[in-house]
Write a structure and sequence with these properties.
Layout lengths: L15 E7 L5 H17 L3 E8 L9 H10 L4 E8 L6 H13 L3 E6 L24
Parallel strand pairs: 1-2, 1-3, 3-4
């Protein structure tokens, strides 16, 4: 009989991710809350948060120092992806699109903690679903 431990009892490395924040307004408390958001998400999803890159400059440029650091980190071996609290942290529309493209070129995934999709899109409205009929007076 083999005495080697089964997989569930071996130390398994979690996928490695790096966080990215655009934190222009707010103080250290807000920044800490954003980092905590990423940390908690990674813990719950068994991801290893290896670091967080933060842009603090109000000027938005595609190749900002923190974003360049993120892209460099994403090119490291065994890196799974980048994690952001919301898609707005990647940047405004034109810049965000280019940044998402650059992240994709590294082969890493972009993980968004909070998606702002409308919950009403997937929820049936009262009376439109065959299972949910309005109750009338009889």
């Amino acid at each position: 009989m083999d005495d080697e431990l089964i997989t569930e009892r071996r130390r398994v490395a979690f996928p490695q991710v790096f966080g990215y924040l655009r934190h222009v307004t707010g103080g250290l408390v807000r920044h800490a809350a954003l980092v905590d958001c990423l940390t908690d998400y990674c813990r719950r999803h068994e991801l290893d948060l290896c670091g967080v890159f933060t842009d603090r400059d109000a000027t938005v440029a595609i190749r900002s120092p923190a974003f360049v650091g993120l892209v460099d980190a994403l090119e490291l071996p065994d890196t799974y992806g980048a994690v952001v609290p919301a898609l707005s942290h990647v940047g405004p529309r034109g810049i965000g699109t280019e940044r998402k493209r650059q992240i994709g070129l590294t082969g890493a995934r972009l993980i968004v903690v909070r998606s702002f999709k409308s919950t009403t899109e997937s929820a049936p409205s009262l009376g439109t679903s065959p299972n949910l009929q309005p109750q009338g007076d009889t």
